[in-house]
Amino acid sequence: MSLPPGFLDELRTRTSLAQVVGRKVMWDTRKSNQGKGDLWAPCPFHHEKTASFHVDDRKGYYYCFGCHAKGDAISFVRETENVDFMEAVRILAQEAGMPMPERDPQAQQKADRRTQLAEVMDMAVGHFRLQLKTGAGAAAREYLAGRGLDEAALERFEIGFAPDAWQGMWDHLKGKGVEDDLILACGLAKPSQKGGRPYDTFRNRIMFPIRDPRGRCIAFGGRAMDPNDNAKYLNSPETELFDKSRTLYHHGPAREAAGKGQPLIVAEGYMDVIALALAGFGASVAPLGTAVTEHQLQMMWRIADEPIIALDGDTAGLRAAHRVIDLALPLLEAGKSLRFAIMPEGQDPDDLLRAKGAPAVQAVLDGALPMVQLLWQRETEGRVFDSPERRAALDKALREKIKLIRDPSIRSHYGQAIKDLRWQLFNPRRDSFKPGTRARAGKWQPIPTAMPSTKSSLLVAADEAAQTRLREAAILASLICTPEVFEEFESALEVMVCSDPEHDRLRELILHHAVAGAETLHAQIEAAMGPEALENLLRLPHVALAPPVRHPGNAEMARLTIAAELAKLSSERGLSAEVSEAAEDLAGLADEAVTWRLGQAAEERQRALRNQTEDRVEYDLAENGARINRDEREQFDALLEKISYTKRTR
Predict the structure, then answer these.
(1) CATH no. for residue 69?
(2) For the segment 517-537, what is each residue's pLDDT rounded down to a tens digit?
(3) Cβ contact 288:297 at 8 Å
(4) Local structure of residue 344 (DSSP, 8 states)
(5) Distances from the Cα of 571 to the Cαs of 446, 469, 612, in angstroms?
(6) Final residue of a structural domain among 96, 129, 145
(7) Phi-psi region of 210 (alpha: psi -120 to 50; beta: other; left: phi over 0)
(8) What predicted TM-score, i.e. pTM, was given to this entire model?
(9) Residues 52/64, Cβ–Cβ less than 8 Å
């Protein structure tokens, strides 16, 4: 029956949840504060010794931190008294002194019809179970025995058999006086397209009753005995009782087992669930022949915070897992996730149980992967990332998936987890890291560095190494002060070769922790290198005057500074290699080509020095006005004189 507007609100206002629940539990006086309506007790829905059941009497809601049961006074009466919604309302209304409104004939008629349909379905369960014991069910009994199901198991799961007859169920129900429209509405028969009598939906199939959480049979699943049948498994059609997208096989018993501490396992089919339950994994459910739906996922999370998706160890099983990931990402909440237990190749849970027993299944469940791990495997397994374009494509694909997560906190943690996995793929482990290496096609290759002769060449400025270290320090310090721009320079930082071991250690820490934010990054640096490492870096003259250090958190300033320093660092290293090569040639027979290359190198050197001067002027103006490094100019004049001398002596 329908209720008038405001009736339930008035009922909840008049009802004390603490009084309703107090009839069923003993309050924990040490944890409870009755004056504030904050009450705790052992949960009445599952066996426990600790007081994990919480009642907020002021808000009128309860929640169990053990089995996750939650609701208001109405739902509490429904669950504890095993009554339907209207009966629970009637009980509470009587206690609150509120008269029940008059019945709505239409609503009552609808409720009565659902009750009639459920009664017809129970008649069908009895008929199918009886048929399994007849001669017609001999082959089905033999098959079930071969699958390890004894008489007790058949009774527990109410397994039956639909004989290979066109009107077997129809005639049985008609003999019980059931009306035609009720049989058809239950999905047990279909109308004939040729004008004849309706015919049975299920024929020559092993029958599995599908019950809702309250225990009412709402549908059937049938496994074909004929291997040539078009549909190996067939479910009841959608009815007034049955919506397969909102139903889980074995829901009620699984919820009860999960409340006692068992992990919720999601298998693919009826036989997997039955085999798991018989082996002691009572909290097992299955979707009904289709991919997991959003409604089913929410139902699973109401049973357990982290269901384990147990899928067959084949390509189809992995595809199903990937579909579940795409469905779940937007729905993730704090504490609500999934894990994935992939069975050995070519086996389902039932196969593994029969081959190796429950310990083997438990081992697979214990090794279940978190969802982020399977997401990473999907995007990387069997692929080679030996080019910037392929790496960029991987980054894009993962970013698109992470963007699906609505919860910002979870999205952030997924981003960090992906960064960690990316680090493991593209960067060496610390125990095997050697400076001057990079990932290429999954292997570590040396990065070309300047030749030894370059460092000792007379054509290289004496303070080049110091200048390079300062540029590296400015880049690292800018990223440490403003890690928000890290992603834009991640690729450049990965291939940057640091001349100073401490800089290389800082580079590694930035790559690993920058995505977590400045506070976490600073803490990780301090833990790994000590507090003095960061202090020493930030007080270097070239670094201390850098705009991003003076204005931490200014993303635009950091972006411009890092880009400029990286460009100059790259230019200087390329120039050093060219000058060194020219110097080596000069040691032999000089010719026009050598002279030309020296001239080109000198011009490049002069342009680089101009850039350095401009850069230093930019920093120095902030504190002490413009200054020019005369030592470098004198050194470069000497370089030009040497080149001129070489030309004259030829």
Answers:
(1) 3.90.580.10
(2) 888 888 888 888 887 888 888
(3) no
(4) E
(5) 20, 14, 12
(6) 96
(7) beta
(8) 0.58
(9) yes
| 61 touches 39 (CB < 8 A) | no
User: Is residue 234 domain-shared with residue 360, that is, in the same domain?
Assistant: no
**Under a CB-based contact definition with an 8 Å cutoff, are residues 55 and 72 in contact?**
no
User: Quick one: tokens of 577?
Assistant: 């290699």
In the numeric block, the tokens 């070239």 are attached to 542
- What's the one-letter identity of residue 493? L
By CB atoms closer than 10 A (0-12, 13-18, 19+), residue 387 is exposed
Which amino acid would we find at residue 470?
A: L
What secondary structure does DSSP assign to 70-89, as a single string? EE-HHHHHHHHHT--HHHHH
Task: Say yes or no: 399 and 467 in one domain.
Answer: no
Strand order in the sheet with 339-345: 284-285, 265-266, 308-313, 339-345, 369-370
CA distance 258 to 213: 13
Assess contact for 19 and 91: CB atoms under 8 A. Answer: no
Instruction: Supply φ then ψ for residue 370, to 5 degrees.
Output: -65, 160
Same domain, yes or no: 548 and 619? yes
Q: pLDDT tens digit string along 317-369?
A: 888 899 999 999 999 988 889 999 988 888 889 999 999 999 999 999 999 99
| pLDDT of 648 over the 70 cut | no
Size of the chain in residues:
650
State whether 639 and 492 are in the same domain.
yes
Closest CA to 137 of 169, 161, 166, 172: 161
Tokens read off for 120:
């017809």
Residue at 95: amino acid letter: E
Both 92 and 122 in one domain: the answer is no
Is 250 a member of any domain?
Answer: no
Q: Are 289 and 320 in contact (CB under 8 A)?
A: no
The reply to whether 117 and 92 lie within a common domain is no
Coarse DSSP helix, strand, coil percentages of the chain, rounded to the nearest 5 percent: 55, 10, 30
- pLDDT over 60 (residue 1): no
Q: Please, what is the angle between helix 294-303 and helix 315-328, to 10°?
A: 80
* Residue 262 covered by a domain: no
CB 99: neighbour CB atoms within 10 A? Answer: 7
Supply angle C-alpha 76, 78, 79, rounded to 5.
70
Residue 316 lies in a domain: yes
Same domain, 228 and 349: no
Q: Look up residue 406 and give its two tokens.
A: 């609505």
Beta strands (DSSP E) in 35-139 are: 38-41, 53-56, 61-64, 70-71
- In the chain, how many domains are there? 4
Q: β-pairing, 284-285 with 265-266?
A: parallel
The first and second tokens of residue 423, run together, are: 């680090």
Query: From residue 347, how far is each of 148, 230, 277, 617 by CA, in Å?
Result: 16, 23, 18, 70
Q: Do 489 and 621 have their domain in common? A: yes
CA–CA distance, 576 with 562 (Å, rounded to integer): 21
96, 331 Cβ separation under 8 angstroms: no
Query: Exposure of 637 by Cβ count < 10 A (0-12 exposed, 13-18 middle, 19+ buried)?
Result: exposed
262 - beta bridge partners?
none
Domain span at residue 626 reads 452-644
Residues 573-608: b if buried by 16+ CB within 10 A, e if exposed = bebbebbbbbbebbeeebeeebbebbbebbebbeeb
The helix or strand, by DSSP H or E, that contains position 311, with its residue range, turns out to be strand 308-313
**Distances from the Cα of 63 to the Cα of 35, 71, 465, 543, 583, angstroms:** 19, 7, 65, 55, 79
Encoding tokens for residue 469?
Answer: 């270290």
Query: CA 650 to CA 644: how far, in whole Å?
Result: 10
For residue 276, is it within any domain? no
